[in-house]
Every structure is written in C-alpha cells, then in structure tokens.
Amino acid sequence: MAATEQEILAGLAEIINEETGLEPxxxxxxxxxxxxxxxxxxxxMTIVVNAEEKFDVKIPDESxxxxxxxxxxxxxxxxxxxx
Length: 83
Prior knowledge:
This protein is mainly α and 83 residues long. It has helices spanning 5-20, 41-55, 61-64, 70-82.
C-alpha cells in the first residue's frame, strides 16, 4: 500500500534526522535540500538509499539531481509507489 504524503514526509524527516542530526520538524515540503537543509551530495546519497529501503522504491542516480526540494522527493516516492 502506498504511503500518504504525510507518511512519506515523516519518513524522510526521520532519515534526514539520522543522517544529519536535523530536527524532523525542520524538514518541510518547501525546503531545499542543499540551501535550506544544508545537505551535501554525500549525505543526499545516503538519504536516497535509506529512502529506497524504507519506501520500497528505486530512485535512479540520474533522478537524484532533480530532487531539489523535500516536496520533489515526496512526490517522486509517491509516484514510484503508485507505479
């Protein structure tokens, strides 16, 4: 069963918190991973791998660069789960 946007956001916030120590409340849909959340490419790859496992989706490397904001990632996961 596909997760809701809220469940995906909460799951991502948890993964980001584990990787970066950022408070889960700081992870909001309109936040940019690099500018607002200060996540570097190495941390981003770890977050992507953990998100793939958690949500049982595949996020191809070439798609990662398109995930600029938290909403981009949530939407991607939602679409991938529905496929």
